[in-house]
Design goal:
single chain, about 500 residues, alpha+beta, Uridine Diphospho-n-acetylenolpyruvylglucosamine Reductase, domain 2, Uridine Diphospho-n-acetylenolpyruvylglucosamine Reductase, domain 3, Alpha-Beta Plaits, globular, binds flavin-adenine dinucleotide
C-alpha cells in the first residue's frame, strides 16, 4: 500500500551512518527577525553565535546532530506566543526544547528551524494542597516538583530516570514513564490541564481542574505525547499523590537475564502489584561496579532485579516475602532486602547510574526503547543477545521489566564507520524482533526523528493518515517540529490527507 521514500526523496536527515548532517545546511536568520525576537525576549536571550548554537545541535541521541538557525529563550506564555507568531509569520519552523535529554532526536533542529527553549520558564506557579494539584511552567525540572511538594506530604509520581535533569514540558511532550510508572502510570495520567501556544501564536487553555477533560473531547490527552509537533505547552497542571506510608525494596541476583525475566512474569502473574520492577543485566553490572557508582552487586551475576513495593505499611512484608519466593523459584542466587533508606538507595544505585557508567565500556551509546508483552521478555532478551553476537556489538540491557519496556543499549565508537553501520542494522533487527513478539517501537522515549522509519512496522496507512490529520488540526502549515514522528511515506492513490505523509510534515 505504501513505501518508505528513498534516501534523497526527502530533505536529508542525519543518520547514524553519517553521524552528522551535511555542512552548510543551516541558514542564518535574517537580521530583522533577530532584532524583532530580541525586542520580545531581550537581546541576551536570542542565541545566534555559531559556537553557542553547537550546545543545541543534538538532544540525548547524539548520533543525530544539526545546529539550529537560532535559539530563543522566552520567560512567559505571552513571550512564547509573540515569538511563535513572529517566526510563523516569516514561515520559520519552531522546534520546542526542554532540557534536551530526549533519546529519539525530538528536539533536533530542522534546517530552517529555530529552537524555542523553556529553560527560563522554571517556576512552580501554584501548589494546591486541598485539590492535590500543582501548576508549573514547562521548564521546571521533574524532580524539583516532588522536592517542592514533599513538605505538604505530596509528590509527583512519574519519575523518568533522567528526572534530575528533564523538564515537565519534555515529559508532557514525550508522555514519559519511569521505574514507578508500573504501578502509578505514565505522565498522561497526571496532566489535568494545559496552556498551549499553537500555530501563529494562538494561546489555548485545555482541560483544567474542575473541568473534567474526559467528558468532552479530550484535547489534553491528544496533546500529551505529541512530541512538540502540535504546539508548545507553556503552563502545566498536574495531579499530585500523597507520599506512601511504607516501602520495601528487594534485590534479586540471577545467573541470567532470561531467568530474571521469568521471575518478573511470575511476580506479576502471582497477583502482586509492585511499584517498580527493573532489570540490570551482567554487562551493566560490570560497568557500574567498575565505576564510582559501585553498588556492591556480585560481578558474576548475569542479571539483577530491583523490586519495590509501597503503600500502607501493613502487608508490605508479606508482598516482599511472596516476591522473594518467586525469585527463588526462578533460580535467584540470592535475594537481598533493604534494611534502611541508605541501603535502599544503594540497591537502586546500579539501576539509576547505569547510563552514566556505560561510558566506561565504549565512547558512544545508543539507548534503544521498545516494548514487548511481559511474558515474551525471556525470548526477546535472548534474541537481542543473538543480534549483538551476530554483529559483534556489545549490548547492555537495563530496563523497566515490569512494563515489558526494554532498553537495549548498543555500545559503539562513532569514529569507526563500519561499527556505525552495524549499529544501524542491529537497531532495525531489534525493532523487528520486538514487533514480531507483539510489541511496539517505543515505550517512553518517543518516535522523534529516530523511529520514524519504523512507524510502518506497527501502523497502517489509515492510522498514519489519522495522525497526520490530527497534526493538521493543531498545526495546519506544519511549522511545529516538522520531520518528526510521521514517517516519510507515499500512499498509493493518495488522498489529500495521505499526501501530507509523503513529506512527513
Ligand atoms: C539518562 C537518561 C535516562 C532517561 N530515562 C527515562 C525514563 O526513565 N523514562 C522516560 O520516559 N524517558 C527517559 N529519558 C528520556 C528523556 O529524559 C525524556 O524523554 C524527557 O521527558 C525529555 O525531557 P526534556 O526536557 O529533556 O525534553 P527535550 O529532550 O528537550 O524534548 C523532548 C521533546 O519534547 C518536546 N518539547 C519539549 N518541551 C516542550 C514543550 N514545553 N511543549 C511542547 N513540546 C515540548 C521537544 O520538541 C521534543 O520533541 C531518559 C534520558 C536520559 C538521558
Amino acid at each position: 500500500m505504501y513505501r518508505l521514500l528513498e534516501k534523497g526523496d526527502e530533505e536529508p536527515v542525519a543518520s547514524l551512518l553519517t553521524g552528522k548532517v551535511s555542512s552548510g545546511m543551516t541558514r542564518r536568520l535574517p537580521s530583522t527577525v533577530v532584532s524583532d525576537l530580541a525586542e520580545i525576549v531581550g537581546h541576551e536571550h536570542v542565541i545566534t553565535d555559531p559556537d553557542c548554537l553547537l550546545v543545541y545541535e543534538s538532544d540525548g541521541l547524539t548520533a543525530y546532530r544539526r545546529p539550529p538557525r537560532a535559539v530563543v529563550l522566552p520567560s512567559s506564555t505571552e513571550e512564547i506566543s509573540a515569538v511563535v507568531g513572529l517566526l510563523h509569520s516569516n514561515g520559520i519552523e519552531v522546534i520546542p526544547r526542554g532540557a534536551g535529554t530526549g533519546l529519539s532526536g525530538g528536539a533536533l533542529a530542522t534546517p530552517e528551524g529555530v529552537i524555542v527553549g523553556t529553560a527560563r520558564m522554571n517556576r512552580i506557579l501554584k501548589i494546591d494542597v486541598e485539590n492535590r494539584i500543582a501548576i508549573a511552567q514547562p521548564g521546571v525540572i521533574n524532580a524539583r516538583l516532588t522536592e517542592a511538594t514533599n513538605p505538604y506530604g505530596l509528590y509527583y509520581a512519574p519519575d523518568p530516570s533522567s528526572q534530575s535533569a528533564c523538564t515537565l514540558g519534555g515529559n508532557v511532550a514525550e508522555n514519559s514513564g519511569g521505574p514507578h510508572c508500573l504501578k502509578y502510570g505514565v505522565t498522561a495520567r497526571y496532566v489535568t490541564g494545559l496552556t498551549v501556544v499553537l500555530a501563529g501564536g494562538r494561546i489555548v487553555e485545555l482541560g483544567g481542574v474542575g473541568r473534567d477533560p474526559y467528558t468532552t473531547l479530550d484535547l489534553v490527552g491528544l496533546f500529551v505525547g505529541s512530541e512538540g509537533c502540535f504546539g508548545i505547552a507553556t503552563e502545566i497542571e498536574l495531579r499530585l499523590l500523597p507520599i506512601t506510608e511504607g516501602v520495601r525494596t528487594l534485590l534479586g541476583i540471577f545467573e541470567s537475564v532470561e531467568s530474571a525475566g521469568r521471575a518478573v512474569t511470575k511476580i506479576i502473574a502471582s497477583g502482586l502489584m509492585p511499584a517498580a520492577v527493573e532489570i540490570v543485566d551482567g554487562p551493566t553490572i560490570e560497568a557500574v561496579e567498575a565505576s564510582v557508582f559501585a553498588a556492591g552487586y556480585p560481578l558474576e551475576a548475569g542479571a539483577a532485579l530491583v523490586i519495590e513495593f509501597d503503600g500502607t505499611d501493613a502487608g508490605l512484608d508479606l508482598d516482599a516475602d511472596r516476591a522473594e519466593q518467586c525469585c527463588l523459584e526462578e533460580g535467584a542466587i540470592e535475594v537481598q532486602r533493604a534494611t534502611d533508606p541508605e541501603h535502599r538507595t544503594k540497591l537502586w544505585r546500579a539501576r539509576k547510574k547505569a547510563f552514566g557508567a556505560m561510558g566506561r565500556i565504549a565512547p558512544d551509546l545508543l539507548v534503544q526503547d521498545a516494548t514487548v508483552p511481559r511474558t515474551k521478555l525471556p525470548e526477546v532478551l535472548a534474541g537481542i543477545d543473538d543480534i549483538g553476537n551476530r554483529y559483534g556489538l556489545k549490548i547492555a540491557n537495563v530496563f523497566h521489566a515490569g512494563d515489558g519496556n526494554l532498553h537495549p543499549n548498543i555500545l559503539f565508537d562513532r569514529q569507526n564507520q563500519n561499527e556505525l553501520e552495524l549499529v544501524e542494522r542491529a537497531s532495525k533487527e531489534i525493532m523487528q524482533l520486538c514487533v514480531d513478539a507483539g510489541g511496539t517501537i517505543t515505550g517512553e522515549h518517543g518516535v522523534g526523528v529516530d523511529k520514524r522509519q519504523y512507524m510502518t512496522l506497527v501502523h497502517g496507512p489509515a492510522e498514519l493518515e489519522a495522525m497526520a490529520a490530527a497534526k493538521r488540526v493543531f498545526d495546519p502549515d506544519s511549522l511545529f517540529n516538522p520531520g518528526k514522528v510521521l514517517p516519510a511515506v507515499e500512499v498509493k492513490g493518495a488522498t489529500d490527507t495521505a499526501k501530507i505523509l509523503a513529506i512527513g510534515e
